[in-house]
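Chapter summary example.
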Amino acid sequence: MNATILNPGMMVCDSPPLDTIRQDKYNFYNVSVSMDGGFITNATGIFRYYKDPIMKDVDPGLGPLTGKTISKVYGWGF
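The structure predicted for these 78 residues follows.
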């Protein structure tokens, strides 16, 4: 994936989707850095994936424009 170097000690990048083949057994990738395809670091970092939460319902599902309505969110994986 592409990365953006913010300063000499930090860069940011987007995680790729987890391969379907890995989903049943592994929920992580080892992280390493390469520059233009050349090897730079060992895989010393780990990026873990989590399953997306599922929202089933919100009660109440409406409230005034002024806010402060307390709602219960039902579902799983929160």
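To summarize the output: Residues 3-76 form one domain.
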